[in-house]
Amino acid sequence: MKRVILTILIAIAFSAFAAADPITFTLDPTSGNVKGNPGDVVGWGFTITNTTANWIELTQSEFDPTAGSDPGVGDGTNYTDFLSSPPFNFYIADPGSTISAAFDPNSMSGLGDFLINPTAQPGSNAHGNIVVTYSVFTDDPNVDPSSQVFPDQTVSAPAMVSVPESSSLSLLIGALFLPIMFAGWRRRRRGVLKESRA
Questions:
Q1: Contact 110/102 with Cβ under 8 angstroms?
Q2: CA dist 28 to 43, 61, 109, 140, 154, Å?
């Protein structure tokens, strides 16, 4: 009988947890859009608000491309997860707390980075979702790691990596018009010299 009651209580707790939005997840930048030139490394920070009475530990992140994403910019293999890679930044949100981390590729702070393919074309973009996996604990996981009740929960936010239009295009256009402007200047100067001789 005790086993049946315990099973029912666990099922109720699980359904209550699954029905509620236990955390609020926002990327930094909040739009999820980051820009860089071919060969650049860009990335995302985050803010997570834990609205539960439990502890939440972030364990993994990934970039999941969506349909229409330009593979020339990169795909999920261009993404490096900072949560499960050394130096293992363990982000734990206590009950009712908010945690944030800015993107910093040197200290591997934030969720992860994205290496834009060196051959990416200007004006192209890769879009998808940043998916974060987390575990839920009834006690502080630093004190009692066995208090984990819900492993492998996920939350996601839309993200995009954009390669801006190249500014070298405007330089190229300027370089093409420079000889035309110089030729016009020479003609005007010749005309002035002819008038002064006459």
A1: yes
A2: 9, 14, 12, 26, 18
Res 96: pLDDT: 94
* Superfamily in which the 22-166 domain is placed by CATH: Immunoglobulins (2.60.40.10)
Sequence-separated (6 or more) residues with CB below 8 Å from residue 116? 36, 37, 38, 39, 40, 41, 42, 73, 74, 78, 161, 163
DSSP-assigned beta bridge partners for residue 128: 65, 159
Residue 6 to residue 156: CA distance in whole angstroms = 32
The whole-number average pLDDT for the span 34-40 is 96
The pLDDT of residue 166 = 73
Whether residue 16 has pLDDT greater than 80: no
Mean of pLDDT values over 155-177: 75
Domain ranges of the chain: 22-166, 167-198
Where does residue 143 fall: left (phi above 0), alpha (psi -120 to 50 degrees), or beta otherwise?
A: alpha
pLDDT of 17 reads: 43
147 DSSP 8-state letter: G
